[in-house]
Amino acid sequence: MDPLTALKKHCWCFVCYWWLIFPALLLPHVIAVGVVEAGAEELADTEPAIDQGLGDKDGDGVIDARDQCPSTDSRLTVNNQGCPEKGMKTIKETVVIPFYPDTPETNTLKISQIQQLAIFARKYPSANITLTGHSEQSGNRQKNKAQALTRARVVKEILVSRFKIKESRIKLHTVGAMQPLMTVAAELDKKKNRRVVGEAKTEIKGQIKRWDVFQ
């Protein structure tokens, strides 16, 4: 065998040797790297997250890091420090007082509804009461409107004489048949629409609720 051929054969054997042995030498390093990476991932999973105060636990729109009132009701309006804002807000009590048919049941319900207005007025001395008389749609409009005002006067008299509410705190109003609850047959028309709507309302200082579509 000439020297050149022998050299080529020797080189080829050397390449084949490393081609076979190199993966075996590299395998332990690959396994070691995989173990280290797996350990790092496991460590990352077990380490607790650092709370940087960027959350909003009470849902008031102010991050925890700046929130000086961390337990605020999320329905309230708050300032930049997350504390409830205070101001004047309107509160009211509204009742519907039936006037038909003229039965003991109707009269009992009538008194209980009027009593609710009286309770509110006593609780809030600054509250005023508006009584709005409504009438049925059937019949003479002018006559019905006058009768609706008469019913409002009846409610006022009960508030003044029975529940001792000052007359100066009560206002009367009538709309007749202009605001019916429903348009129905004559008998049911009287039952549903012959009524007085009472509203006691005042303003008080307190925490202000956020506006939403249900208000």
TrEMBL record:
SUPFAM superfamilies: OmpA-like, TSP type-3 repeat. The chain crosses the membrane at residues 12-36. Keywords: Membrane, Transmembrane, Transmembrane helix. InterPro entries: OmpA-like, OmpA-like_sf, TSP_type-3_rpt. The keyword Membrane applies. One of its GO terms (molecular function) is calcium ion binding. Residues 86-204 form the OmpA-like domain. One of its GO terms (cellular component) is membrane. The keyword Ribonucleoprotein does not apply. This is OmpA family protein. It comes from Spartinivicinus marinus.
